[in-house]
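The freezer alarm interrupted the setup, so I double-checked each line after restarting. Inputs confirmed:
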Amino acid sequence: MMVRLAVRNIFRNRRRSLMTAALVAMGSLALLVFGGFVTNIFAGLETGIVQNGGHLTVYRSGYFLFGPGNPAAYGIDDHETLMHEIEADPVLHGMTRVITTSQSLVGIAGNFSGGTSASKTFFGVGLIGADRERMHTWNDYGAGRVYPPDDRLLDPTAARGVIGRGVARMLGLCAQLHVPNCPAPEARPAPEGAAAPLDPGLAELALGEQGPAPDANAAPRIDLLSATANGAPNIVGLEVAGVDIQSVKEIDDNYIAMPLALAQQLVYGRGTHKVTAITLQLTHTADLPAARARLTALIAEKQLPLEVRDFKEMNPFFTQVVGMFSVIFLFLTIIMGVIVLFAVVNTMTMNVMERTNEIGTVRAMGVRRSGIRRLFLLEGALLGGMGATFGVVLAFLAIWAINHGGFVWTPPGNTDPVPFLLAWPTRPGLLFGSWFGLVLVATLATVPPSNRAAKSRIVDALRHV
Amino acid sequence: MKDPVVRLQHVARAYRTGAVTIPAIRDISLDIAPRVFTVIVGPSGSGKTTLLNMVGCIDLPDSGQIAVSGQDVLALSDNTLADFRARHIGYVFQAFNLIPVLSAFENVEYPLLLLDIPAAERRRKVLAMLAAVGLEAQANQRPNELSGGQKQRVAIARALVKEPALVLADEPTANLDSVTGAAIIALMRQMQESFHTSFIFSTHDERLMKEADQTFTIRDGMLVP
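Predicted 3D structure, all chains:
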């Protein structure tokens, strides 16, 4: 009877109740749509990172903090044995999708054969092209970029690689590589006075590289100069197969990717070839804690001087974006909660005032104060529940409409526009959390008016007109 | 006289408005016999409603003793007093005070819900009571679909359905025309006799006074002979 009475009381003043429920529904709609947006951002960002860098990476101890300054000094000894042990591990085997190795390096890239004598520093990576292709297909959330097949790095023996657009720009390769939005460097006036003499070895190399004028249709070649692990300079030639635009300008201005063997040749010369990282891409991110624990235990068992880092540690940007959107979501939740709170307080206060005489009547008939309180709290909860449920339905309709609207945008961490999609808010924390949260707020908003109703004196309530 | 259904001893009640104290009831003592038709009469502002409220346990005196059905009601806690009202006291209000969102059936059923009576028994009692007041056909109608007389019949059925020891009615015919008022008085008298319940009215209505088995006259908060 109490539920029946509460439902009927809600519809006693339909317009007021519907307006209040609509406000709750708007709160629910806003939270779920924004939640879907945020979920999709997180998923897209994570997918982009995992597609390129995997979930877990094993480095030589100290590499994470100091290695990028001198990658050659942080090579992993006997990495092939460790790779086999990881592949053979029964726990990791079931979780892991790709295990691959890479070699980081720093050096100077020069376009001496193009006749420009342009050069610049670079951060390079040597990788296994086939593994990179497999890693690019990871799309656990259906929210990532779809990479077209790319064979530029597939031949492990080729001296062929790709560079960032910034590198192409600064080395004057944009025209040859047909890179859009990539201007040629401005001609600089010759410096006054005598030019610094070029090292005789380099001068000879440059002379030899210049040769005849380059073929406009042939892939350009650049030279990469780096220091080996022993500190000696080493040079390799690289055919530039194309440009891979990086989302962060500083990386784009320095990025060169090449086959692992070429990078190892540049860094280790004739010495033992090592790698700076063993990367694991898991089938599901949810397995990350277990996989990390197992990998760490494996390394500890072997007493290897290695450390394990996950993709969040290696990409603080990801954690920062998650933190920022979480704070915005919290802020929105608080605003919606306050709006719903005041709307329900107002509605229920008016309900109590209008029904004062009725409250006196049922109290005279024997209803306890707690019974009055329960009735109004139930009405508040039902009002909130109605609104929140309606909001869920609206949110699903809105998300469907947006996802079918054909909108595009460039999310953080991406270089190209992607479809603007919202994740379905089916995550229990979001869906049920927002629903119960709004119902709770609506119920709590009813506490002051219900207390006032319960505490009123019966004879005063009966006299109320 | 049998044990009185209501006993008031030196009951006093005053209302305070700011610094002004207005005495509503001054040292009233009375016994109301069980299963009789009792009328409290007096001019407006004489204290009839205040007296009825205290007998009905919805207002408490400043001093004195009140016993209803042998129970010292001043000794009861707020919750126990509510339970006592639910079980022993029925009300008929001048403005009917039906719950507008409930049908006639549900309004009559409401007091039984407070007593946790099983659904089947509730239904039987409610239908019997609606039949007794001649409103079987209107069971599913809401108060706004009923006439004034019908509303008061529903209110009488609601007050009697739990078979209380005491039914209180505060000027029950004041909002009714004379013909309907007479019919309601006749109905209440008939119901009182059928259910052997004690009825206490406050009224100006001379027709009600004529029906009374016991009459108390109150003026300026005091009983007058």
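Quick read of the result. Chain A is about 55% helix and 15% strand.
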